[in-house]
């Protein structure tokens, strides 16, 4: 969902709707909020990966004497390895494609990806904030409806 689409749906004013319609608006907002939170978490996880890759490339040995290192097989399991060419690294650029780069260029690539994801996270957080404000307004409308119903019931007694 783009930021413009999400903000356009925030312009709806639920005042004057029936209680069931207001509940539907609240349910849709809750669904949107959960989706945005999940998307932000996934982006933060990807961003962490690029940050870790950037640090890993910066720590590569630069001389031919110290070219042994630990290669991660998972987040908790490493095997000893040997860097045959410290002047070049293979970078996974997505969908199974790898590009050979110099370590400095690889660091720049990871930094660009890290920064790009941060921009996208910031956009989603703004949309999320707007959705949270709208949900708060809708909850206020629901409270107002409930208070009106209670007042009507008290007057009928």
Automatic annotation (TrEMBL):
Gene3D superfamilies: 1.10.287.370. GO terms for cellular component: cytoplasm; prefoldin complex. The keyword Lyase does not apply. Residues 19-46 form a coiled coil. Keywords: Coiled coil. GO terms for biological process: protein folding; RNA polymerase I assembly; RNA polymerase II core complex assembly; RNA polymerase III assembly. GO terms for molecular function: unfolded protein binding. CDD domains: Prefoldin_5 (cd23157). The keyword Cytoplasm does not apply. PANTHER family: PREFOLDIN SUBUNIT 5. Belongs to the prefoldin subunit alpha family. This is Prefoldin subunit 5.
